[in-house]
Structures are given as C-alpha cells and as structure tokens.
Write a structure and sequence with these properties.
- The structure is a homodimer.
- Chain A has helices spanning about 20-30, 45-55, 65-75, 80-90, 135-150, 205-215, and strands at about 5-10, 40-45, 55-60, 90-95, 100-105, 110, 125-130, 155-165, 165-180, 185, 200, 225, 235.
- With about 250 residues, chain A is α+β, with helices and mostly antiparallel strands.
- Chain A has two domains: about 5-55 and about 130-245, CofE-like (60s Ribosomal Protein L30, Chain: A), CATH 3.30.1330.100; about 60-125, CofE-like domain (CofE-like fold, Alpha-Beta Complex), CATH 3.90.1660.10.
- Chain A is globular.
- At the A-B interface, strand 1, strand 9, strand 11 and helix 6 of A face strand 1, strand 9, strand 11 and helix 6 of B.
C-alpha cells in the first residue's frame, strides 16, 4: 500500500457562540457525516471557532482609539478602534508601514494585525481576538475526545498568517496537543548515508496547511480531520517549540 | 459526501540522474502501485529529483572558495566551497550572521543557503542546486502527463524552506504549472455577508506542505499525488505570482 494521508472536512456544524461545546459538536458532526473521529487522527480546528466558544469576540465600541491608533489608520479603510484592539493584543510592533501592522502578539506570535480579524463573525462592529492559550484549547478538545470516544487524537488550532517575501497567507499552527509540532531529522542518515545536520520540519504547520485545503474561507468547514499521518505522540506538546523567540531571529 | 483531499505518496522510483525521464518514471511508479495519475490531480514533485534529472548537481571541486566564502564559513561545519556555491547562486545576501546565509537567489526566492544542500544525493562532495526555471520544469511534467495519459494535471515543484520567526522548515512551491498558485477571496462575501477585503491564500504552498506529509526526508517518496482538491486551473501559471519582490517587502 502506498503511503496515504486523508484530509476530511467536517461539515454541518452550527454557528458557534460563547460557551458552546466545540469538541462535542465536532464529534457529533463528524459522526453525522459518516466519518467519526478515530484513534490517531489529527484534528485541525480553525482559530475563529475556538475564539468564538471562548468568548474572545469583542466590539469596536468596547475601546476608544488612542492617538497612535488614529494616526496609523488615517487614510486606510480600517476603523481606528480596530487598530486599537491590534495594539492592545501586541507586546511589540515589529513593522508599521503603509497601514500594515506586523506585531509580536502577547502570545508570542509574529503576524499581521495581531491575528485579529472581522471576517466570518456576525455583526458589523465585532472582531475575533486570538484565544488566550491555544495550547490549552487544543488540550481541552483532545481530552474531550478521549473522555467521550476513548481514542487518542492530536489537535492543532490553526490560523491564517501572512509571511515575509511571499504573497498569500497560509494556515499555520497556533496551538497543539498530543503531537510533537516539529519532526527533527537531526542526526539521522539520509538515503545515501549522510547525516542530516539541520533538518527540522514544522509538521504542525504543514498539517494546518493541509487542513485548510478542505476548509476554505467561505465554506463553513471549521474543522478538518487528517487521517493516516504518523505523527510523533507527545503528551506535553506546546506551540512554544515552534516559536523562535526574537533574540534568535534575524528578522525581528 | 464530506469534502476530502487525498495525499498519496509515490514509491518505488529509482535513484535518478541527469537526463532521466522523471515524468515517465513517476507515471510508471504511480501505475505500478495501483494509483495511476488521474485528471485533476496535483502532482507535488520535490526539487531534489528535478535538479538531478536536469543536471543541477555540482561538486565542491568545481569551484574555488573566495575570500568571502572562506571568512563566512570559518568556525562552521560547512566546506567553504559549499559556501562559494551559495554565493554564486545568489543575487543578494539578505542576512549573513553566525554561519547562516539568507539569500535572495538568482531565481528570486528568499531562503537559507540559496536552496542548495547536500542531503539525499550520492557522493561526499556533491551539492544539488535549484532548477534554473522550476515553472518550466513543472510545465514539462504537466505536458508529458497530458501527452501520454491524456489527462490534465497541475504540477508543483516543492522545496523545503525555513522562515523567519518560526522554528522548523516547511515545504513550499518553487515552480507551478496548470493551477493558480494563489486563491484570492478579495471581493467575495464571508459566511456573514461581509466583504473579505484582503484574503489571499497561497494554495500552492499549502499543497506543497501537504505533499511533504507523505514524503518525509528519508523515505524515498519524491512525488506526491494530491487528489480531490478543486484548484483554479490556469494555463500560464507562474511562481512569480507568489514572489513578492523586495521593493514591496517589509523584511528585505
């Protein structure tokens, strides 16, 4: 049998709101569409639904725009109070130019606009912030699946981030549970017997990207099941293993 | 039926060398393992095998290390002639620090070490350079599949690139044929009727990442078939659409 990985979108989940049982609803929906969650699956859950059930949805009118937020936004389409939220979710501004704000968020992510956006949430003046601790969100879903179905899964909370040098965003991991987010080949031999000194693959980001292929931005598929991928099980996994830390980075 | 994408690794291909019929061999291998290439497939072909069949394998001894190459490499494990090859494949050094060289390659890619590496090729003093024109490589494979099997496929040439801010590398596209590498949602409405102003997804990079999940670095799976992904067909596709160009970038 050739190696094969399946990426299955989970459809039919309801619009979610603060306090909803996300894990339960995704198990129900997967079951209802004939693809119940199985041992060894990787569940890729998009950040937006995690933020919704965790109550991380805010209104423009919850804040007043600071002079900096007003100045930065001038001449751009964004509401200055939206910009204010971006600044409040950041611990460092990495670049601020032509209306673009690249932040280091308070969670340690480098991304545009502190990961805040207004798409796919109800209301004209609402924004979804990132979850406070996406690793904990992932762990909670993993535990709920174990408790109800008795199976071990890995969980990735994903978000759509841009990146330097390349147009277009891709989905990456912002929280993980149950798998090592990096597959290290350091010290292993390649196919010709040479030691591979430096190769480390961010498999959690590749899994998040694969999950996006069945999700899409308008399709109402907030969860993907990745089946058949032989990940490295790790009980105390954390996205911190992927976050480089600004002191080691050449592009801070 | 829930949305599903399959990622199938192509095993059983021989060690490749200059002049080999890569497209023919991958069609043979896919057929032999019971997963013949079908209309609408995306073929993800890793750069290393493309470089091999195109003769982009060089030896350390083909060059003499310049004083800069010697100085940069001092105290690091790399052969200075390897560094010389990196400099020769670059049109700009973006960062050069602690043995790390981030280049803009002559093809326009931003990556470490000009995309050159020594793993998975025979010999102790050999290096694989990037293909001269990976779009042309992808187009050639696409045409060969059309000519022999009569089916339309998309082809992505992939390579493993690191990135700022996040540990671990991921596979990205360096050449494309037959599909739009970016899926733009600009102007479309989201699930709540809001216009999505800025969302563009680099689907070619996500497909490359998905392809890596069945490949791996030591597994001898240089080609993946991605089946069931509804890509945007585009006859004159090019990776240039993903390359931002340094004049627009905040991290040059």
């Amino acid at each position: 049998m050739p190696p094969e990985v399946r990426v299955i979108g989970v459809e039919g989940m309801p619009e979610l709101t603060n306090g909803d049982d996300l894990a339960g609803l995704m198990m129900d929906a997967a079951q209802a569409q004939g693809t119940p969650i199985e041992d060894g699956d990787v569940l890729v859950v998009t950040q937006k639904v995690v933020s919704k059930v965790e109550g991380k949805v805010v209104k423009f009118s919850d804040v007043e725009a600071s002079p900096l937020a007003i100045a930065v936004t001038e001449g751009h389409r964004r509401d200055p109070r939206h910009t204010e939220w971006i600044l409040r979710e950041s611990k460092r501004v990495v670049r601020m130019d032509r209306g673009v704000i690249i932040c280091e968020t308070k969670h340690g992510f480098y991304c545009a606009n502190a990961g805040i956006d207004a798409s796919n949430i109800p209301g004209d003046d609402t924004l979804a912030l990132l979850p406070d601790d996406s690793d904990a969100s992932a762990r909670g879903i993993r535990k709920a699946v174990k408790d109800r179905l008795g199976v071990e899964v890995a969980v990735i909370v994903s978000d759509t981030f841009g990146r330097p040098w390349r147009n277009g965003a891709t989905d990456v991991a912002i929280g993980v549970a149950g798998l090592d987010p990096i597959h290290s080949y350091v010290g292993q031999m390649d196919s010709h017997g040479h030691e591979m000194f430096t190769t480390e693959i961010a498999v959690a980001d590749e899994l998040a990207a694969a999950g996006e292929l069945v999700g899409g931005k308008v399709a109402g598929v907030p969860v993907s099941i990745i089946r058949g991928y032989d990940y490295i099980r790790l009980e105390d996994a954390s996205i911190q293993r992927i976050l480089r830390g600004s002191e080691k980075d050449l592009f801070r």
